[in-house]
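Supplementary Methods. Inverse-folding protocol.

Structures were first reduced to a C-alpha coordinate string of length 285. This string, shown here, constituted the complete conditioning input.
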Protein backbone atom coordinates (compact mmCIF):
# COMPACT_ATOMS: atom_id res chain seq x y z
CA UNK A 1 0.00 0.00 0.00
CA UNK A 2 1.27 3.42 -0.88
CA UNK A 3 0.75 6.89 0.69
CA UNK A 4 -0.43 5.14 3.82
CA UNK A 5 -1.80 6.70 6.96
CA UNK A 6 -2.94 4.32 9.72
CA UNK A 7 -2.84 4.68 13.46
CA UNK A 8 -2.19 1.45 15.34
CA UNK A 9 -1.75 1.41 19.11
CA UNK A 10 -0.21 -1.60 20.81
CA UNK A 11 -0.25 -1.65 24.60
CA UNK A 12 1.49 -4.27 26.69
CA UNK A 13 -0.44 -4.69 29.93
CA UNK A 14 1.04 -6.46 32.93
CA UNK A 15 -0.97 -9.20 34.59
CA UNK A 16 -1.01 -12.93 35.20
CA UNK A 17 -3.60 -13.56 32.49
CA UNK A 18 -1.37 -12.31 29.66
CA UNK A 19 0.55 -14.98 27.77
CA UNK A 20 3.99 -13.42 27.27
CA UNK A 21 7.00 -15.75 26.86
CA UNK A 22 10.12 -14.47 28.64
CA UNK A 23 12.50 -12.30 26.67
CA UNK A 24 15.07 -15.12 26.56
CA UNK A 25 12.65 -17.58 24.94
CA UNK A 26 14.71 -19.84 22.65
CA UNK A 27 14.56 -19.28 18.92
CA UNK A 28 12.91 -22.01 16.86
CA UNK A 29 15.09 -24.46 14.92
CA UNK A 30 16.06 -23.11 11.48
CA UNK A 31 13.88 -25.66 9.70
CA UNK A 32 10.86 -24.36 11.65
CA UNK A 33 11.38 -20.67 10.88
CA UNK A 34 8.80 -19.39 8.36
CA UNK A 35 9.98 -17.13 5.56
CA UNK A 36 8.11 -13.83 5.03
CA UNK A 37 7.86 -12.34 1.52
CA UNK A 38 6.09 -8.99 1.03
CA UNK A 39 5.39 -7.95 -2.57
CA UNK A 40 8.24 -10.16 -3.76
CA UNK A 41 10.73 -8.93 -1.13
CA UNK A 42 12.03 -11.22 1.62
CA UNK A 43 11.61 -9.60 5.04
CA UNK A 44 14.56 -10.06 7.40
CA UNK A 45 13.92 -9.63 11.14
CA UNK A 46 16.21 -9.45 14.16
CA UNK A 47 13.93 -11.80 16.13
CA UNK A 48 12.98 -14.78 13.99
CA UNK A 49 9.34 -15.24 13.03
CA UNK A 50 7.76 -18.29 14.60
CA UNK A 51 4.58 -20.29 14.39
CA UNK A 52 2.60 -20.52 17.63
CA UNK A 53 -0.55 -22.64 17.64
CA UNK A 54 -0.75 -22.41 13.86
CA UNK A 55 -0.28 -18.61 13.80
CA UNK A 56 2.78 -16.87 12.36
CA UNK A 57 4.14 -14.25 14.78
CA UNK A 58 6.47 -11.55 13.50
CA UNK A 59 8.04 -8.47 15.16
CA UNK A 60 5.59 -5.59 14.84
CA UNK A 61 8.18 -3.08 13.65
CA UNK A 62 9.26 -5.25 10.75
CA UNK A 63 5.79 -6.01 9.42
CA UNK A 64 4.94 -2.30 9.64
CA UNK A 65 8.07 -1.20 7.79
CA UNK A 66 7.62 -3.95 5.19
CA UNK A 67 4.14 -2.64 4.44
CA UNK A 68 5.45 0.92 4.03
CA UNK A 69 4.00 2.41 7.20
CA UNK A 70 5.67 4.54 9.90
CA UNK A 71 5.87 3.64 13.57
CA UNK A 72 7.05 5.31 16.77
CA UNK A 73 7.67 3.36 19.97
CA UNK A 74 7.28 4.69 23.51
CA UNK A 75 9.23 2.31 25.78
CA UNK A 76 7.85 3.79 29.01
CA UNK A 77 4.25 3.52 27.88
CA UNK A 78 5.08 0.32 25.96
CA UNK A 79 3.11 1.73 23.09
CA UNK A 80 3.69 1.75 19.35
CA UNK A 81 1.99 4.26 17.06
CA UNK A 82 1.78 3.43 13.37
CA UNK A 83 0.56 5.87 10.70
CA UNK A 84 -1.12 3.99 7.87
CA UNK A 85 -4.09 4.92 5.65
CA UNK A 86 -5.70 7.22 8.23
CA UNK A 87 -7.31 4.37 10.17
CA UNK A 88 -7.02 3.80 13.92
CA UNK A 89 -6.38 0.21 14.90
CA UNK A 90 -5.91 -0.96 18.48
CA UNK A 91 -4.49 -4.25 19.73
CA UNK A 92 -3.61 -5.11 23.30
CA UNK A 93 -1.16 -7.70 24.59
CA UNK A 94 -2.91 -10.77 25.88
CA UNK A 95 -6.18 -9.92 24.14
CA UNK A 96 -7.60 -12.09 21.37
CA UNK A 97 -9.24 -9.24 19.44
CA UNK A 98 -7.84 -6.54 17.15
CA UNK A 99 -10.00 -3.47 16.45
CA UNK A 100 -9.38 -1.83 13.07
CA UNK A 101 -11.58 1.20 12.54
CA UNK A 102 -15.11 -0.06 13.08
CA UNK A 103 -14.14 -3.71 12.56
CA UNK A 104 -13.30 -6.25 15.24
CA UNK A 105 -10.87 -8.98 14.13
CA UNK A 106 -10.43 -12.15 16.16
CA UNK A 107 -6.83 -13.20 16.92
CA UNK A 108 -6.02 -16.91 17.13
CA UNK A 109 -2.93 -16.06 19.19
CA UNK A 110 -2.57 -12.95 21.40
CA UNK A 111 0.16 -10.35 21.00
CA UNK A 112 3.33 -11.48 22.80
CA UNK A 113 6.69 -10.05 23.82
CA UNK A 114 9.56 -12.33 22.79
CA UNK A 115 13.23 -11.41 23.25
CA UNK A 116 12.24 -7.80 23.83
CA UNK A 117 10.18 -7.53 20.63
CA UNK A 118 6.43 -7.12 20.33
CA UNK A 119 5.35 -10.11 18.25
CA UNK A 120 2.02 -9.86 16.46
CA UNK A 121 -0.08 -12.30 14.40
CA UNK A 122 1.02 -11.54 10.84
CA UNK A 123 -2.22 -12.49 9.10
CA UNK A 124 -4.52 -10.46 11.36
CA UNK A 125 -2.36 -7.33 11.30
CA UNK A 126 -1.58 -7.48 7.57
CA UNK A 127 -5.20 -8.13 6.58
CA UNK A 128 -6.37 -5.30 8.84
CA UNK A 129 -4.09 -3.07 6.74
CA UNK A 130 -5.72 -4.32 3.54
CA UNK A 131 -3.09 -6.88 2.50
CA UNK A 132 -3.71 -10.51 1.45
CA UNK A 133 -1.73 -13.57 2.60
CA UNK A 134 -0.89 -16.95 1.09
CA UNK A 135 0.88 -19.79 2.92
CA UNK A 136 3.13 -22.21 1.00
CA UNK A 137 3.64 -25.23 3.27
CA UNK A 138 6.25 -26.80 0.97
CA UNK A 139 8.67 -23.90 1.45
CA UNK A 140 7.22 -22.66 4.77
CA UNK A 141 6.77 -19.23 3.20
CA UNK A 142 4.12 -16.59 3.88
CA UNK A 143 3.48 -14.41 0.82
CA UNK A 144 2.01 -11.00 1.63
CA UNK A 145 0.54 -8.89 -1.18
CA UNK A 146 -0.50 -5.29 -0.63
CA UNK A 147 -3.26 -3.77 -2.78
CA UNK A 148 -2.41 -1.13 -5.38
CA UNK A 149 -2.56 2.50 -4.41
CA UNK A 150 -6.00 4.08 -4.88
CA UNK A 151 -6.51 6.37 -7.89
CA UNK A 152 -5.21 9.88 -7.35
CA UNK A 153 -7.76 12.64 -6.70
CA UNK A 154 -8.58 15.04 -9.52
CA UNK A 155 -5.99 17.86 -9.73
CA UNK A 156 -6.97 21.30 -8.47
CA UNK A 157 -7.18 23.05 -11.89
CA UNK A 158 -9.68 20.47 -13.14
CA UNK A 159 -11.72 20.76 -9.95
CA UNK A 160 -12.07 24.50 -10.40
CA UNK A 161 -13.21 24.04 -13.99
CA UNK A 162 -15.60 21.14 -13.42
CA UNK A 163 -17.27 21.48 -10.02
CA UNK A 164 -20.05 23.84 -9.02
CA UNK A 165 -21.00 24.20 -5.35
CA UNK A 166 -24.32 25.62 -4.22
CA UNK A 167 -25.82 26.09 -0.74
CA UNK A 168 -29.57 26.52 -0.43
CA UNK A 169 -32.06 27.22 2.34
CA UNK A 170 -35.83 27.13 2.09
CA UNK A 171 -36.11 30.85 2.95
CA UNK A 172 -34.08 33.90 4.01
CA UNK A 173 -35.80 34.91 7.24
CA UNK A 174 -36.93 32.71 10.11
CA UNK A 175 -38.88 33.05 13.32
CA UNK A 176 -36.95 32.08 16.47
CA UNK A 177 -36.83 28.33 17.02
CA UNK A 178 -37.89 27.41 13.48
CA UNK A 179 -35.75 24.55 12.10
CA UNK A 180 -33.56 25.65 9.20
CA UNK A 181 -32.89 23.15 6.42
CA UNK A 182 -29.56 23.47 4.62
CA UNK A 183 -28.79 21.68 1.35
CA UNK A 184 -25.31 21.59 -0.16
CA UNK A 185 -25.24 20.63 -3.86
CA UNK A 186 -22.10 19.51 -5.66
CA UNK A 187 -22.34 19.23 -9.45
CA UNK A 188 -19.79 17.96 -11.94
CA UNK A 189 -20.29 20.21 -14.97
CA UNK A 190 -17.31 18.76 -16.83
CA UNK A 191 -17.07 15.89 -19.32
CA UNK A 192 -14.77 13.72 -17.17
CA UNK A 193 -15.32 11.97 -13.82
CA UNK A 194 -14.12 13.90 -10.76
CA UNK A 195 -12.57 12.11 -7.79
CA UNK A 196 -12.31 13.77 -4.37
CA UNK A 197 -10.32 12.25 -1.53
CA UNK A 198 -11.39 12.51 2.11
CA UNK A 199 -9.18 11.81 5.14
CA UNK A 200 -12.05 10.00 6.88
CA UNK A 201 -15.60 8.84 6.27
CA UNK A 202 -16.78 12.45 6.54
CA UNK A 203 -17.59 13.97 3.15
CA UNK A 204 -19.18 17.30 4.09
CA UNK A 205 -19.81 19.71 6.94
CA UNK A 206 -22.05 22.65 7.78
CA UNK A 207 -21.23 25.64 10.01
CA UNK A 208 -23.15 28.60 11.37
CA UNK A 209 -21.25 31.85 11.99
CA UNK A 210 -22.20 35.11 13.68
CA UNK A 211 -19.90 38.14 13.77
CA UNK A 212 -17.10 35.91 12.49
CA UNK A 213 -17.44 33.42 15.35
CA UNK A 214 -18.52 29.81 14.96
CA UNK A 215 -21.88 29.19 16.61
CA UNK A 216 -22.65 25.65 15.49
CA UNK A 217 -21.01 22.86 13.50
CA UNK A 218 -22.89 19.85 12.15
CA UNK A 219 -19.96 17.43 12.61
CA UNK A 220 -19.37 18.31 16.27
CA UNK A 221 -19.85 15.23 18.41
CA UNK A 222 -20.19 12.90 15.42
CA UNK A 223 -17.80 10.04 14.72
CA UNK A 224 -16.52 8.96 11.31
CA UNK A 225 -14.54 5.95 10.18
CA UNK A 226 -10.85 6.91 10.19
CA UNK A 227 -9.71 5.75 6.78
CA UNK A 228 -9.19 7.40 3.42
CA UNK A 229 -12.40 7.53 1.40
CA UNK A 230 -13.32 8.87 -2.02
CA UNK A 231 -16.25 10.70 -3.55
CA UNK A 232 -16.55 10.23 -7.32
CA UNK A 233 -18.91 12.25 -9.52
CA UNK A 234 -19.59 11.20 -13.09
CA UNK A 235 -20.01 13.91 -15.75
CA UNK A 236 -23.21 15.92 -15.11
CA UNK A 237 -23.78 14.08 -11.82
CA UNK A 238 -25.04 16.02 -8.79
CA UNK A 239 -24.73 15.07 -5.12
CA UNK A 240 -26.84 16.74 -2.45
CA UNK A 241 -26.28 16.76 1.31
CA UNK A 242 -29.05 18.06 3.57
CA UNK A 243 -29.04 18.75 7.31
CA UNK A 244 -31.28 20.68 9.70
CA UNK A 245 -30.14 23.32 12.20
CA UNK A 246 -32.47 23.78 15.16
CA UNK A 247 -31.26 27.33 15.92
CA UNK A 248 -29.20 26.17 18.89
CA UNK A 249 -25.52 26.79 19.52
CA UNK A 250 -22.83 24.19 20.20
CA UNK A 251 -23.87 24.06 23.87
CA UNK A 252 -27.51 23.45 23.00
CA UNK A 253 -28.72 26.95 23.88
CA UNK A 254 -31.19 28.83 21.62
CA UNK A 255 -29.42 31.51 19.58
CA UNK A 256 -30.65 35.14 19.73
CA UNK A 257 -32.28 36.92 16.78
CA UNK A 258 -29.90 38.43 14.27
CA UNK A 259 -28.02 37.77 11.06
CA UNK A 260 -26.14 34.50 10.58
CA UNK A 261 -23.85 33.11 7.90
CA UNK A 262 -24.45 29.49 6.93
CA UNK A 263 -21.50 27.58 5.44
CA UNK A 264 -21.68 24.32 3.48
CA UNK A 265 -18.34 22.62 2.86
CA UNK A 266 -17.02 19.52 1.09
CA UNK A 267 -14.31 18.16 3.41
CA UNK A 268 -11.84 16.86 0.84
CA UNK A 269 -8.07 16.81 1.27
CA UNK A 270 -7.26 18.95 -1.76
CA UNK A 271 -6.16 22.57 -1.71
CA UNK A 272 -9.15 23.87 -3.68
CA UNK A 273 -11.89 25.10 -1.28
CA UNK A 274 -15.26 23.58 -2.08
CA UNK A 275 -17.73 25.58 -0.01
CA UNK A 276 -20.57 28.05 -0.33
CA UNK A 277 -22.15 30.58 2.05
CA UNK A 278 -25.65 31.89 2.58
CA UNK A 279 -26.87 34.72 4.84
CA UNK A 280 -30.10 34.29 6.79
CA UNK A 281 -31.84 36.38 9.43
CA UNK A 282 -33.62 35.25 12.57
CA UNK A 283 -36.17 37.95 13.30
CA UNK A 284 -37.24 39.02 16.76
CA UNK A 285 -40.75 37.92 17.75
Amino acid sequence: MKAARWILTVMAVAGPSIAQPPSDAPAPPPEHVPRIVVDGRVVQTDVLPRIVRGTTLIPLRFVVEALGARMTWDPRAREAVIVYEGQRTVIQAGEDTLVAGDRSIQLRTPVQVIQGRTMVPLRAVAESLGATLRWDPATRTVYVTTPPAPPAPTPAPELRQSLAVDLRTDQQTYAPGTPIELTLRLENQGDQPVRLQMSSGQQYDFLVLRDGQEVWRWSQGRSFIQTLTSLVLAPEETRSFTVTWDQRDAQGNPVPPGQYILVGRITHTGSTPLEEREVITIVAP
